[in-house]
Specification:
574 residues, mainly alpha, two-stranded antiparallel ribbon, 26 helices, 2 strands, 2% strand, globular
């Protein structure tokens, strides 16, 4: 390269990395997705108001479980967000997501406010439909964040961006608990009001950045891997500090004034990542470092639809260490990154091992969080519910952050991502057997922490695993097929818990302080209410662990080949 060409290349590099503000927009988009995810995990605080909802509707534990299932069933309609993106701009989809959530939670809020005698003012089927719409709105928010990260980062940086963004979804319950304690402690209806308002407010706040994201041209996806890793490391350090802050101080909110102080600190930490886009705007990136190997082929246009050519994605994955060839041999994944149609996916043995690991792992953890309110109530620990929610939320957050560990260690540690998935499932059966066999005061806290950590890791890692095993271009369809296990598991595992609860409970006349009504319902108190459930859930998660280990042994050859190919290309490029 002569001097003129070198000068011209440096000029282009400077333009791409902050000279025209595009670098600032790229990192601002990531901060926007972090904010959106931090307040849109509204399904995680269901246990905070589930007992009040059950009392107001005058329904059994099984009917309450159907409402939790409806919220999870809404995720099965997540494909509708992709359909909406074909006909609507991204900002419109974001605002429509907020509108759906607003309508769904306002209906549930009105149920708790209703003081009319039985039957309730809003019938049960309408509440069921509202829960369904609420679950669908969460999926729409997730899709918006996924698209923003995809359009803003090159192929080598996307896993880190997606992992960081989805991690903050696990903190939603902790943030909502802080808001509720500051505004109206021990009032269940405030959670529903916050679920309706906060996502809309944050969506409006993030809207200018989402609009700017659409105006970037395709060349903006060029990046420097080493520079991006340093910036992401800064983001992850701030994320860890935020999580530790919420774990340590989140439970010290006994008074409204204390809650406001802790909440102000949490909001400041959430705003702190804005320093990174500002710093990127004010400083120049090292233009002499090696280019991202994927940048030469990565020319994603933000105006293009999500489904782009298969050849383009194959080229990106080739440059990241994935090779191609015949992938299915008796239903076994032999090579990473090959695209799978729906028919081919359902014929793959490894997919069903993966499906079982998720179904018998992370989904059980999600159902546990939905039942946390009744679990605390049955153990006479209702006053500790907000603390338990904060523990589950924070540990889920750390689990999601840990899912990015393979991205930072891929140059040093040759370990299949499916192996990380199996390792993440180990704490789950341990936690349930601990809850079943012990009644110690700290057992519930320790078990909740382990379940949150394990399920959080799996939720965040699943997107990358699906893309690697069954093709990046087919991830939208294939991942939606995978998460059909969530409503199925929510219904099955929730029914197990409800049957055990109702069998051991007694019919009592209960006075609802919120509505002033006296209702006859089944109430269960004592360890027996969930002891058998914990044992059954522990055995189920053992099956999930066995499936994940089998998946690891069947796919480690493909991951080893991909890692070897990546190292070879790295040596050649150097």
């Amino acid at each position: 390269m002569d001097d003129d060409d070198r000068c011209e290349w440096r000029g282009r590099s400077h333009a791409h990395n902050g000279g025209d503000g595009r670098e600032w927009r790229r990192w601002s988009a990531l901060v926007a997705t972090v904010w959106i995810q931090a307040v849109t995990g509204t399904n995680f605080d269901f246990s905070a108001y589930s007992s009040a909802l059950k009392s107001s509707l005058g329904v059994s534990q099984q009917c309450l479980n159907y409402l939790a299932t409806a919220s999870d069933l809404g995720k099965a309609f997540g494909w509708s967000s992709g359909l909406a993106l074909l006909y609507m701009p991204l900002p419109a989809v974001l605002l429509l997501s907020a509108a759906l959530g607003l309508a769904a939670y306002v209906v549930q809020y009105c149920v708790l406010l209703s003081s009319s005698p039985s039957p309730p003012a809003i019938p049960y089927p309408v509440v069921f439909l509202a829960c369904l719409v609420a679950g669908c709105s969460i999926c729409w928010f997730n899709t918006v964040c996924f698209v923003v990260c995809t359009r803003s980062f090159s192929a080598s940086s996307r896993p880190l961006a997606l992992s960081l963004s989805t991690s903050f979804n696990g903190l939603s319950a902790a943030f909502y608990t802080l808001f509720a304690n500051a505004l109206a402690p021990y009032t269940a209806s405030v959670y529903l009001l916050l679920n309706a308002i906060l996502p809309l407010a944050i969506s409006l706040l993030a809207l200018p950045v989402i609009l700017l994201c659409r105006q970037q041209d395709h060349h903006n996806l060029h990046s420097k891997p080493e520079h991006d890793e340093r910036v992401f490391l800064g983001f992850y350090i701030l994320a860890v500090v935020t999580g530790v802050y919420l774990v340590i101080l989140g439970s010290f909110t006994s008074t409204s004034s204390t809650a406001w102080v802790v909440l102000s600190g949490a909001m400041a930490l959430l705003a702190l990542p804005l320093i990174i886009p500002a710093a990127s705007c004010c400083s120049d990136v090292d233009i002499h470092g090696p280019e991202d190997p994927a940048m030469k082929l990565n020319h994603d246009d933000p105006q293009k639809p999500l489904l782009i050519s298969n050849d383009q994605y194959q080229s990106e994955y080739q440059l990241q260490g994935c090779c191609y060839g015949t992938i299915l041999e008796k239903g076994r994944v032999l090579v990473l990154g090959e695209e799978h149609s729906a028919k081919r996916l359902l014929q793959c043995v490894d997919f069903w091992l993966y499906y079982t690991a998720y179904f018998c792992g992370a989904t059980v953890g999600l159902v546990y969080s939905n039942n946390l309110g009744q679990i605390a109530q049955s153990l006479h620990r209702q006053s500790e519910l907000t603390m338990l929610l904060a523990v589950y939320s924070s540990c889920s957050f750390f689990g999601r952050l840990l899912s990015a560990l393979p991205e930072f260690l891929y140059r040093k540690v040759s370990f299949a991502r499916t192996g990380w998935l199996a390792a993440a499932l180990v704490p789950m059966p341990m936690a349930f057997f601990l809850l079943w066999n012990s009644e110690g005061e700290n057992t519930l806290v320790a078990g909740t922490a382990l379940i949150g950590l394990s399920s959080g890791f799996i939720f965040a890692a699943a997107v990358s695993v699906t893309a690697e095993l069954f093709g990046p271009n087919s991830i939208g369809m294939n991942h939606n097929i995978l998460i059909t296990n969530i409503p199925l598991g929510s219904l099955l595992y929730g029914q197990i818990a409800a049957l055990v609860y109702d069998t051991n409970g007694l019919r009592k006349m209960v006075h609802d302080n919120g509505t002033g009504r006296v209702e006859a319902m089944i109430v269960c108190m004592g360890a027996r209410c969930y002891s058998t459930t914990f044992l059954v859930w522990g055995c189920i998660t053992l099956l999930g662990l066995a499936s994940s280990i089998a998946l690891f042994f069947r796919t480690r050859q493909a991951y080893a080949a991909g890692q070897s190919s990546f190292k070879h290309r790295s040596q050649v490029s150097s």
